[in-house]
User: Which sequence fits this backbone?
């Protein structure tokens, strides 16, 4: 495959490559990559969004002196992004499948803790929820990109199954929150439950009867919904539209066993439930969150690689319990995120040295979160599905102790089907066009870059021709793609 | 601009559009983001009537409806993905049938249908199931479907279900066919949604019966209500009132009233609250007792005793279990706890009512310390309906105060009164919040924090009727309990739960408050009476455009 993307290098890049002494390395790698026929299918197929809590300790994440856009160090001590350049642990470095973006702002207009809903919707949180559907749902459902897979989309979580805006990534029409599956067994059954097909005629006949019965129930319900629908006004109809979408989803699961689109060599191994006897936060689930997260990641990687679904979200949790493996205080929120006392790079530009003692604990937690993303990349890569996948990784906040939704740590990972130029880190302009580098959204001087632009770019990468996404008070924040991505 | 949508209106708000043709869909009046949950809705308010709509059953309503219909216990609702909340209430307009719910529902319906098969001889007796199955099915459907749908069924609907029966019974038995039909019914929109569509601006008799039943008993209409519906009597306010009184006397109403009060204050979240075990080692062991206390207390006050909302805040007793009661009374472990008819007297201590109970105090506190701002904001928003804008809407950067082992919590929050930008709102929030400081993050009394004395005194000047100087939250709560603000704010929240809507339906809510004004003063604070007033009103039965 010779995507013209890969062959085209700007003068600027060539100059940079020369200037910093890494004369031909990035060039050579990209060129040789382009000329080797890839075993992996490199069109952009899959979109995964991952949330990690507690913002970022920018001191161990941000661009450092000596870093350039294409040549940057992730291996310095305590760098939270180290897992992306750790061949010893993950078999290879994923630096060339990583795009780090500094300076994205989430214009949630809400408390940081309620702002996760803005990550995929680009919407203000009004009345406790975003105002529009999330990008994954728009692509999967509205644009039909998920229609041919057995499962249109899946939302997974760890420990918390509430649907508040602060803990939900995916939203249906009108911003209706979609619940997360926090039980890996339930996720497995949903995604792979129909894959096993036994051969003998008796069980085949039974399966056929079961399918016919199931279909008759679905057809009946669909008929009743269709009779009810015209009696409702347009906003009420949205409720039934979602109901119909859900029926289609169930129908796909019903028919899923024979779908030719699924390319698994048999179903993957079922998760070992003994590893997580409890699931829920505040109910004893915490010590199992690490195992649950790993199980969810494995399921996701398999589901995407097998073509069971193309759209997925994962809402990760923290390790707030006594004796957690990171050696952090039992309350990660109060005693790690809220004790973080940042220097200007982590403080949206505000001056003051901060307290270095408070940076490392948060950075340690960040690194843990990124280890999980690297694990997902490793699994996808092993299954040949990394190149055609785009993973969008973000938190709900930048500086967590300020509850700030400015300068939210944003990563794009995977091959992205070549639609984005990976292997770089970009730092966007400052949020304020003023002598003082700090200001807030709503200030006249605020010129920050909202994540809406990122969502527009992602939509376009999936072939959806939009030039705006999300709900904001000012159109400038919802309109336009990000040129920095390609 | 979709009407009835939550506050997405307002000039300049641009919802997601395929191409930015600049269609500023923000038509309609500016909708300021009200901190307590959304701005006014345009739909239906012109006439003061609530807009027509459909409402999905809550998880608890699902279980109750299954029990009533099949005679089978269902715990499936409790295992479904949690109810989406609006203003803390589970009865609301936000519940949806999403793909996850659909999958869970499908699995539940299958199992419930199998369980119903065991009761088939009672549900759907048939003399000759082998050759006369279809005829029996027809008979069964004719009486069962109206019960499932809570209204008369049309021939078309019965025919559609008979077709499902035939496929289910094909190569199988009469019982198998019926199980499939029952499964289909449990997943049908007729069962899952309560409709408020009506005809010519008024709910149908059966819709009124359902609305009444779900509001006051959390389940579908019983035979008496159904008969009244059939006779067209529910159109009459006095008949509705009679049924309301009848249902309120039943135990199911206790659960409904308790749920309403707890969801109003958010104290049902005690089930999901956790604390730092180094700071509050006793919390985990006492948490179940806190939850039980909240349930038993509210039920006793508002249902058994038919008390008023102010009683909830002035009660000088608690039904708490011994271990929790000892905490309240500052007794040693294993000390004797005196009870009178199950109740423990609090006359020797300063805490009173819900604001002195561990559930409220723990929910509105952090894992390792108190949260005076959360407590103050909750009292203002939920008990006084006093507008407290969110700091983000005012462009204020919140910097939570760092922990300081040499200061009390109150001292650490001093900047709220020193900084003019903070003080504008915090002069109203903080005095209330600080008045609770004598009760720690799990509700235990304390006189010291970090070896410094606790100051719980409060000087409130917010323009409220209960402004004044108070020694602590006990004194404040006594004044608050009798205030007109509490009475009216409670009535508003009762309305929002009863109407099962989030946003301030200004026209309808105002109309309801007028009805409340017309009630005898002694009845105005009683939740059951408020609901009965709503049921008897025109608001209950009229619906405007969607």
Assistant:
């Amino acid at each position: 495959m010779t995507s013209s993307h890969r062959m085209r290098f700007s003068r600027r890049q060539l100059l940079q490559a020369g200037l910093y002494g890494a004369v031909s390395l990035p060039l050579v790698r990209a060129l040789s990559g382009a000329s080797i026929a890839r075993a992996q299918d490199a069109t952009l197929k899959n979109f995964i969004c991952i949330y990690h809590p507690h913002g970022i300790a920018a001191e161990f994440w941000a661009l450092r002196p000596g870093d350039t856009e294409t040549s940057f160090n992730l291996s310095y001590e305590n760098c939270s992004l180290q897992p992306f350049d750790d061949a010893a642990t993950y078999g290879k470095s994923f630096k060339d499948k990583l795009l780090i973006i500094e300076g994205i702002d989430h214009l949630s207009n809400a408390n940081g803790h309620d702002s996760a809903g803005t990550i995929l919707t680009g919407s203000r949180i009004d009345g406790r929820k975003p105002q529009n559907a999330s990008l994954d749902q728009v692509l999967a459902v509205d644009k039909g990109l998920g229609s041919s897979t057995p499962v249109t989309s899946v939302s997974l979580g760890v420990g918390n199954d509430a649907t508040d805006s602060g803990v939900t990534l995916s939203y249906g029409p009108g911003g209706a929150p979609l619940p997360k599956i926090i039980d890996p067994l339930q996720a497995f059954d949903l995604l792979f439950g129909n894959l096993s097909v036994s051969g003998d005629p008796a069980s085949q006949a039974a399966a056929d009867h079961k399918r016919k019965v199931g279909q008759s129930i679905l057809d009946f319900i669909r008929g009743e919904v269709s009779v009810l629908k015209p009696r409702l006004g347009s906003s009420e109809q949205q409720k039934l539209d979602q109901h119909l979408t859900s029926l289609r989803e169930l129908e796909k699961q019903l028919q899923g066993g024979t779908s030719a689109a699924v390319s698994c060599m048999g179903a993957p191994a079922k998760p070992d439930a003994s590893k997580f006897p409890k699931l829920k936060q505040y109910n004893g689930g915490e010590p199992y969150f690490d195992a649950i997260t790993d199980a969810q990641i494995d399921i996701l990687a398999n589901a995407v690689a097998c073509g069971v679904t193309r759209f997925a979200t994962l809402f990760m949790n923290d390790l707030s319990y006594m004796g957690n493996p990171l050696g952090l205080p039992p309350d990660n929120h109060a005693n790690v995120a809220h004790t973080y006392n940042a220097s200007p790079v982590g403080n949206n530009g505000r001056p003051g040295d901060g307290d270095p003692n408070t940076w490392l604990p948060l950075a340690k937690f960040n690194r843990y979160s990124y280890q999980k993303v690297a694990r997902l990349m490793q699994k996808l890569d092993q299954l040949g599905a990394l190149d055609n996948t785009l993973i969008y990784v973000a938190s709900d906040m930048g500086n967590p102790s300020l509850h700030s939704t400015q300068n939210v740590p944003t990563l794009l990972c995977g091959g992205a089907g070549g639609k984005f130029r990976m292997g770089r880190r970009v730092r966007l302009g400052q949020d304020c066009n003023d002598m003082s580098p700090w200001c807030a959204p709503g200030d006249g001087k605020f010129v920050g870059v909202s994540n809406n632009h990122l969502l527009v770019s992602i939509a376009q990468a999936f072939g959806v021709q939009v030039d705006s996404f999300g709900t904001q008070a000012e159109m400038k924040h919802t309109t336009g793609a990000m040129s920095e991505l390609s | 601009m979709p009407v009835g949508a939550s506050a997405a209106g307002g000039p300049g708000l641009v919802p997601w559009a395929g191409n930015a043709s600049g269609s500023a869909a923000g038509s309609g009046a500016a909708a300021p983001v009200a901190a307590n949950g959304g701005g006014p809705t345009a739909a239906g308010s012109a006439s003061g009537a609530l807009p027509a709509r459909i409402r999905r059953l809550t998880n608890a309503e699902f279980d109750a409806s299954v029990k009533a219909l099949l005679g089978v216990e269902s715990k499936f609702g409790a295992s479904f993905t949690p109810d989406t909340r609006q203003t803390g209430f589970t009865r609301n307009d936000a519940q949806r049938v999403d793909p996850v719910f659909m999958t869970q529902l499908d699995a539940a319906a299958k199992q419930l249908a199998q369980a119903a098969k065991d009761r088939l001889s009672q549900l759907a007796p048939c003399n000759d199931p082998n050759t006369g199955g279809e005829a029996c099915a027809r008979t069964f459907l004719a009486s069962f479907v109206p019960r499932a749908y809570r209204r008369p069924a049309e021939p078309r609907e019965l025919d559609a279900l008979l077709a499902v029966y035939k496929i289910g019974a094909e190569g199988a038995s009469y019982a198998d066919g019926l199980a499939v039909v029952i499964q289909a019914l449990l997943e049908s929109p007729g069962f899952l949604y309560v409709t408020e569509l009506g005809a010519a601006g008024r709910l149908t008799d059966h819709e009124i019966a359902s609305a009444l039943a779900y509001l006051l008993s959390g389940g579908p209409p019983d035979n008496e209500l159904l008969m009244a519906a059939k006779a067209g009597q529910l159109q009459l306010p006095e008949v509705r009132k009679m049924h309301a009184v009848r249902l309120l006397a039943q135990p199911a109403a206790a659960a409904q009233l308790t749920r309403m009060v707890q969801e109003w204050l958010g104290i049902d979240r005690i089930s999901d609250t956790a604390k730092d075990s180094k700071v509050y080692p006793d919390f985990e062991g006492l948490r179940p007792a806190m939850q039980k206390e909240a349930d038993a207390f509210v039920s006793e006050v508002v249902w058994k005793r038919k008390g008023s909302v102010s009683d909830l805040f002035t009660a000088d007793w608690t039904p708490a279990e011994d271990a929790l009661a000892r905490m309240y009374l500052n007794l040693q472990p294993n000390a004797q706890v005196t009870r009178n008819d199950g109740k423990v007297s609090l006359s020797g201590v300063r805490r009173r009512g819900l604001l002195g109970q561990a559930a409220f105090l723990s929910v509105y506190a952090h894992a390792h310390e108190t949260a005076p701002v959360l407590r103050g904001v909750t009292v203002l928003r939920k008990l006084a309906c006093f507008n407290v804008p969110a700091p983000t809407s005012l462009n204020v950067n919140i910097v939570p105060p760092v922990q300081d082992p040499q200061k009390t919590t109150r001292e650490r929050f001093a900047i709220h009164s020193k900084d003019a930008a903070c003080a504008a709102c915090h002069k109203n929030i903080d005095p209330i919040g600080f008045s609770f400081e004598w009760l720690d993050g799990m509700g235990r009394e304390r006189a010291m924090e970090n070896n410094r004395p606790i100051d719980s005194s409060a000087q409130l000047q917010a323009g409220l009727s209960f402004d004044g100087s108070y020694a602590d939250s006990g004194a404040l709560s006594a004044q608050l309990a009798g205030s007109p603000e509490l009475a009216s704010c409670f009535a508003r929240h009762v309305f929002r739960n009863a109407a099962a809507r989030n946003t301030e339906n200004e026209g309808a809510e105002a109309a309801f408050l007028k009805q409340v004004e017309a009630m005898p003063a002694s009845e105005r604070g009683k939740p059951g009476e408020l609901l009965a007033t709503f049921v008897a009103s025109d608001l209950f039965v009229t619906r405007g455009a969607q």
Summary: The CA atoms of residues 356 and 398 of chain B lie 28 Å apart. Confidence is low (pLDDT under 50) at residues 1-46 of chain B. Chain B has 25 helices and ten strands.
